[in-house]
Amino acid sequence: MAKAEIYDEKSIQVLEGLEAVRMRPGMYIGSTSRKGLNHLIYEIVDNAVDEHLAGCCDHIDVCLEKDGSCTVTDNGRGIPVGMHEKGVPAERLVYTTLHAGGKFDNTVYKTSGGLHGVGSSVVNALSEYLDVKVKRDGAIHHDRYVRGKPDIELVGGLLPIMGRTKETGTTVNFLPDPEIFEVTRFSATEVKSRLHETAYLNPGLTICFTDRREDPEETVTYHEPDGIRGYVKEMNKACEAVTDVIYFEGSDENIKVEAALQYVNEFHENVLGYCNNIFNADGGTHLTGFKTAFTQVMNVYARELGILKEKDQNFTGSDIRNGMTAVISVKHPAPRFEGQTKTKLDNPDAARVVAKVVSEEAPHFFDRNLDMLKAVLSCAERSAKIRKTEERTKTNLLTKQKYSFDSNGKLANCISRDAKKCEIFIVEGDSAGGSAKTARDRNYQAILPIRGKILNVEKASIDKVLANAEIKTMINAFGCGFSEGYGNNFDIAKLRYDKIIIMADADVDGAHIGTLLLTLFYRYMPDLIREGHIYIAMPPLYKVVPSKGQGEYLYDDKALEKYRKNHPDQKFTLQRYKGLGEMDPDQLWETTLNPATRMLRRIEIGDPRLSSDVTGVLMGTDVPPRREFIYKHAREAELDV
Fold first, then answer.
1. Which of 249, 406, 507, 557 is catalytic?
2. Higher pLDDT residue, 592 or 387?
3. What share of the chain is helix, strand, coil (3-state, %, to 5)?
4. What CA–CA distances, in Å, run from 311 to 314, 390, 392?
5. How wide is the angle at C-alpha 488 spanned by C-alphas 482 and 493, nearest 5°?
6. What is the spatial distance between Cα 132 and Cα 457, in angstroms, rounded to a whole number?
7. Rounded to an integer, what distance in angstroms lies between the CA atom of residue 618 and that of residue 542?
8. pLDDT of the residue at 271
9. What letter would DSSP give residue 83?
10. Is the pLDDT of residue 282 over 50?
């Protein structure tokens, strides 16, 4: 056993100010990819929305500037600029100190999305520069920061004044730091989707978006007086509606609850949860309360109307929610989230209050709208019948192949049965599959070769999906079943591998295979993505072998360009890998399989509405929208040249 490094008092490191944010940005914004980049905008916008929730702001402007920066302006009260008891202006405290702000005083903000008080300071820490103008007390106060540190001298201990005005509000202009982020170009599509979503959640708010990077520049205004009812309608605009939008609201224990839902003929479940305008991608207690109470209410009605007989089992929650699109929005004075990015609400009182509101208000609505009640129960009844039929047939469909070392060489399983340690590689073709089987660590790495491109599930019916040999093999190997339109047969607890890794060639065909697999996982096993189990292996494109010294693997064309720039006078041989099958087992292990040296890209679901729409456009049957999308986003594509 190797001797450990000396661990004493000198080993304890204290990071001052915002250094911790710059060292571990993922802890605060999720990642340093484009998703994390866009999150900077959302943090500043959320602060402005909190002013709206306090009744002090009704207009927000968001502008993507030509120089790559972003400007967010609101007409709220303006950040306080007076001297704080800490000896610095309050505004400077907000932008340079974690957990500083007015969100901790319930007399200032009754509800707030930025509860943790780190949003502004984190954006400042991760920006090359951040410029602030505060309109307050008849003056325009100015401050500026460079990589989180103040860059303007105070005047008499206070911020300099650059003009006079009767208006109030705050303007923040910031440029993401290229030292931190993998990409520094904001995604207009994703930002617009988030802003539109915010407008739906705040009917009295107007948000203007401008993209000055475009020629001509793009300007869009979002104002949605119908609130979440309009949001649900918009999500279902391409579907055949079975009911009108069902809406009810209520409050208790200082928690306000809004719910809007609608049923469509395409049997799927799309229930979105928001707390204080923040989308909770992983759900939480508010969704648990809604689902439990709504299921109970519907089952009571089903028995009262004779749809369920005494001997019949209750409808499952999935039966009742199939066909449902719903938005559940709560305003909570003291929400608790799992993580700074607020993906899951954790307040038990939210479940209790939401359940109470649903139990009281849903019957009031359905007692006055019996036709819609019968339509909802008809959807549940049909779903339950099909679910029961499929449960009898799925066993035959899915158990023809065994979870083991297959005699035909399909699945080369690992020895370990500890799911937390195991991982499975989905490999394109027998050639790469053979190399991978030889190169792997058979103790915990399983290899599943697939033959070419699997079925596009976006265009196929469920019976064709289940009949596909490659898909059946994957379902059997994973062990957790799958989700589909008429019931949910998926159980994440039964997953046999902690990591499911797509390992395809670094070319167009490989990208297509990866896209087809991701479509399958997104539509039929979305929890695999939500729980962080889906990865894409990043095999190198090149190997550089200099005339002197050791060779080096390069993973993309940018890396090759950088290598040439850093070694202008060096002679080297360049090997281009066209496929994984060209690597010998040692190379494959070193570059793609070895956890100590490989690169993996974990797949995440961002904006749920945008993700579903983009999947439908790119993988669906309608060609013109796909062509339009490709033309519009061509500059964002990563080309294999």
1. 507
2. 592
3. 40, 20, 40
4. 9, 21, 20
5. 65
6. 49
7. 30
8. 93
9. B
10. yes
Measured CA angle at 392 (ends 291, 320), to 5 deg? 20
Contact 136, 80 (CB under 8 A): yes
Q: Mention the CATH class of domain 19-222.
A: alpha beta
**Cβ neighbour number for residue 203 with a 10 Å cutoff:** 14
Measured CA to CA, the distance from residue 39 to residue 533 in angstroms comes to: 22
Annotated catalytic residue 240: no
What single-letter DSSP state applies at residue 314?
A: P
Q: CA 585, CA 445: separation in Å to the nearest integer? A: 14
Which sequence spans correspond to the domains of the chain? 19-222, 228-388
Catalytic-role residue among 61, 484, 505, 607: 505
Active-site residue, 505 included: yes
Q: Say if CB 473 and CB 401 are below 8 A apart.
A: yes
Average pLDDT of the residues in 548-566 = 85
Collapsed DSSP state (helix, strand, coil) of residue 51: helix
Question: Quick check: 64 and 194 in contact, CB under 8 A?
Answer: no
In this prediction, residue 174 carries a pLDDT of: 97
Residue that has been written with the tokens 């060096």 in this structure: 570
Q: Phi/psi at 19 (nearest 5 deg)?
A: -60, -35
> Pick the catalytic residue: 43, 428, 470, 484?
428
What is the bridge-based pairing of β-strands 423-428 and 499-503?
Answer: parallel
Tokens 């911790």 correspond to what residue? Answer: 20
pLDDT at position 2 is: 43
HSE at residue 421, side-chain half, CA atoms within 13 A, is 9
Our CA angle for 137, 139, 143, nearest 5°, is 110
Written out in words, the top-level CATH class of the domain with range 228-388 is: alpha beta
**pLDDT band of 393, cuts 50, 70, 90:** low
Position 626 scores a pLDDT of: 72
**385 band by pLDDT with thresholds 50, 70 and 90:** confident
Q: What percent of the chain has pLDDT over 70?
A: 86
Task: Supply the DSSP symbol for 359.
Answer: H
Instruction: Output the pLDDT for position 356.
Output: 97
- In the residue annotation, 527 being an active-site residue is answered as no
Q: Sign of torsion, CA 557 561 566 568?
A: positive
Q: How far apart are CA 224 and CA 233, in angstroms?
A: 12
Q: At a CB cut-off of 8 Å and minimum separation 6, what does 496 contact? A: 403, 417, 419, 422, 424, 477, 478, 479, 480
Q: Which of 509, 582, 590, 604 is catalytic?
A: 509
- For the CA atoms of 373, 374, 378, 381, the dihedral, rounded to the nearest 10 degrees, stands at 80
Distance, in Å, from the CA atom of 482 to the CA atom of 495, rounded to the nearest integer, reads 11
Percent of the chain with pLDDT over 90: 49
Catalytic residue at 226?
Answer: no
- Report which of 20, 41, 39 is spatially closest to residue 31, judged by C-alpha positions: 39
